Amino acid sequence: MSKASGYCDPAFAKIGDVFTKAIESEFELGASLAIEHKGKIVVDMFGGHKDIKRTKPWEENTIVNVFSVTKGVAATCIAKLIDEGKLDVNNKVSFYWPEYGCNGKENTRVSDLLCHRSAMFGFQDGMPSGPWQNWEVFTKALETQKPFKEPGSAQGYHALTYGWLVGEIIRRVDGRHTGQYFMEEIAEPFGIDFQIGLNQSDFERCADMIMLDDFGRKKNSIDYMELIKYVPNFILPKRYWNLKEAIKGGDFKIAFEGREEDPIGYHNLPDWRMAQVPSANGHGTAHSLAKLYGILSNGCQRDGRQIMKPETLDYAIIPLSSGPDSVLFGSNITFGLGYELGKNSMPVGNFAPKFKNAMFGHAGVGGGVAFGDIENQLGFGFVCNQMHEVKNLYKTVNEIMDALFAELEK
Q1: What is the third-level CATH fold of 4-408?
Q2: Could you tell me the maximum CA-CA distance found in the chain, to the nearest angstrom?
Q3: Phi and psi torsions of 86, nearest 5°
Q4: How far apart are CA 18 and CA 400, in angstroms?
Q5: CA-to-CA distance for 265 and 220, rounded, in angstroms?
Q6: Which helix (H) or strand (E) holds 361?
Q7: Helix 69-83 crosses helix 286-296 at what angle (to 10 degrees)?
Q8: Angle, helix 161-174 to helix 135-144, in steps of 10 degrees
């Protein structure tokens, strides 16, 4: 039987109850939850199992691949480089990466990459084959290809390509890959247990990530959602028009394109875990993410050390793009400089996380979410290791967030 363990401040008992139910009902295979409030850990819980056979218990120091939650960590690296005076996101990408300025990408700005408006949400010739650790293979393909649309003209979520595009900017500006920069400049100084490019010595404590078998893989059957393409607009409610256009465009399939060579479960193999993919393969604990965003939400400093000036973070979370997102089915997701922002109305249901108000951070396709909230001085991290069906993808974390904000709003 799965059990939940850890600490929960009595004032936040309802949040702990939601997490415990998710674990002990076995809706979640394994997960951890951590919340900082005003610089103090008020929830730090974990439970379930690291493997699909439920033979390895999820422990306090268990880490897991958090997929696109990694983008918020990479965004923090970008903000720190801005703070250091090394990067101006209003410059053209080619100012830092000259080879990129070709084939219709000459006027793309760094900010376009960060807010998913560079129209480079996939690879024109398909995802490159070979080891995930071959950084130059992926960046070379992106620097030479044409964009899918006019850069800056539309928002299209860069699910995987964000990692190589933004990561190459970091490498060109600083000389280090994103994982090394984050480790040396933020993780080690602040004691944050999060890695982009996992050390082999940490494999033993890493949970397996269980994805839907057909996610990102080519299918012969027609997705039922595609039927909306054939419904005339005068019949279709207006709120579904953006969805229809996104389905017709097919950008989701490009952005989340899989590789036939990759076996199911490749996310748990050494090549993926050890690679630098700053959009999708960060590994860490909920505690580490709550601590990172807790620091950011409390003046960007702790114990005499500072990640960046608060004014720099304020700049990084100014809304730059709010959809409709051609990859994410026409949704009105808001982005700043790499951070997902809670500026628009919350979705109905659990197919998306309920980002709202002053929240900044990122969600991952596996169901994980991490965010900060300066107004409430919050740092939040929830990570799990089993991808649910789309309708329940963020069920647990949304119920936790509902309980959390109900408590804060009392």
Answers
A1: Beta-lactamase (3.40.710)
A2: 61
A3: -90, -15
A4: 6
A5: 20
A6: strand 359-363
A7: 30
A8: 100
Which residue, among 43, 15, 34, has the nearest Cα to 410 in the 3D structure?
A: 15
Q: How far apart are CA 67 and CA 90, in angstroms?
A: 27
48-55: long-range pairs with CB below 8 Å, 24+: 48/2, 48/4, 48/23, 48/385, 49/2, 50/206, 50/207, 50/208, 50/385, 51/207, 51/208, 52/208, 52/210, 52/386, 54/2, 54/29
Q: Which two tokens stand for residue 168?
A: 């190459």
Domain segments of the chain as ranges:
4-408
Tokens of 190: 């602040």
12 closest CA partner among 37, 32, 46:
37
The CA angle 247-248-252, to the nearest 5 degrees, is 45
Cβ neighbours, 10 Å, residue 255: 25
Residue 183 one-letter amino acid: M
Backbone phi and psi for residue 391, each to the nearest 5 degrees, phi listed first:
-65, -20
> Which residues does residue 282 pair with via DSSP β-bridges, in sequence order?
196
Quote the CA–CA distance of 92 and 107 in Å, as a whole number: 6
Sign of torsion over alpha carbons 127, 156, 164, 392: negative
DSSP class of residue 147? P
- 156, 246 Cβ separation under 8 angstroms: no
65 neighbors 366 (Cβ within 8 angstroms): yes
Q: How far apart are CA 270 and CA 266, in angstroms?
A: 9
Contact 78, 338 (CB under 8 A): yes
What string of DSSP letters covers 336-353? SSS-EE--SPPPSSSSS-
Residues 309-360: tens digit of each pLDDT? 999 999 999 999 998 898 887 788 999 999 999 876 555 567 778 888 889 9
3-state helix, strand, coil in the chain (%, to 5): 35, 15, 45
- Using DSSP's 3-state secondary structure scheme, residue 330 falls into coil
Task: Record the pTM.
Answer: 0.93
Arithmetic mean of pLDDT over the chain: 91
> Cβ(190)–Cβ(295) under 8 Å?
yes
* Token pair for 236: 């279709």
> Which of 328, 221, 217, 219 minimizes the C-alpha distance to 266?
217
Residue identified by tokens 């415990």 is 20
Contacts of residue 235, defined as CB under 8 A and 6 or more positions apart, other chains included, come to none
CB pairs under 8 A, 24+ apart, for 125-131? 126/257, 126/259, 127/160, 127/257, 127/258, 127/259, 129/259, 129/261, 131/271, 131/275
- For residue 353, the model assigns a pLDDT of 82
pLDDT tens digits, 122-167: 999 999 999 999 999 999 999 999 999 999 999 999 999 999 999 9
